Amino acid sequence: MNMETTIRVWMSTSFRRQLIRKNVVRDFLWFGLKEVRSCLFAGGFFAILALSKWLPLGDLPRYDFLLLAALGLQALLLWLRLETWEEVRVISLFHVLGFALEVFKTHPSIGSWSYPEAGYTKVLGVPLYAGFMYAAVASYMTQAWRQFELGLTGYPKHRVALPLALAIYANFFTHHFIGDWRWLLIAVLLWQFRHCRVHFTPFQRRYWMPMPLAFVLIGFFIWIAENIATFFGAWVYPDQHDGWQLVHWGKISSWSLLVVITFLIVAELQRSRQRRVRETWTPRCSKLSSPAVRPSSASCQEAQALYRTGSGLD
Prior knowledge:
This protein is mainly alpha-helical. The protein is 66% helix and 5% strand.
């Protein structure tokens, strides 16, 4: 190899490295922007929670203000078309599931945590705004699914995913009476998801991550959010009555399992939605061959996008 060829190879390799480095930085920035976009409801809710500590609310209890603010934030996102009604229905489902768990956990005979402040909108000792903390996780999940064009490969069968989600949810209740089975459930989860990958697109390039790792990472960041929430008095654990302290690390596993429940239910709803869109629109779009009636509608584009990206759910 002569000197000129060597220089060309070196310059070509150097250019490729710079290009790869540039693309990685660009994708990382887009990843951050899309994460912020996916966290609009969750971030807005926690910002309101923090501000409520110092806002002059007069005779309005803080818990009631938080409920009104959460409803207002949800309405604003709908009005700005940053969330869809379908996503709101998913969020509402998790509001109900979360509120049921809250009622059980705050019962005097259980006493996992409490809401010591007064409020007109407290039901069975739980302020109605509490369900929005679980809804925030579902909001993030549904937004991220759309923003990152999430796709799954190696996803467990339908007959496995839903019973696993139900068993994890039930364990949050039953471990007070028959022992904590979370580690067995985690072992089953790891085995069932050992081949599962979540594929996502920050900008143009497609990346993937092992699904169990994604569960843990999201659970960790929710644990950080929980520490922020308890610092501002969203709820109080028994060891925080005399002053705030860091939430125990063990809660990361609980939040990771909650993420699993959320993800499995959202994934199953996505499966149903994808089948509905494909069955309804794809046959129609495929027949639109005339240039005057090309499949340019949003629904046709959505059906085509489902085939392009693929979810691995079917």
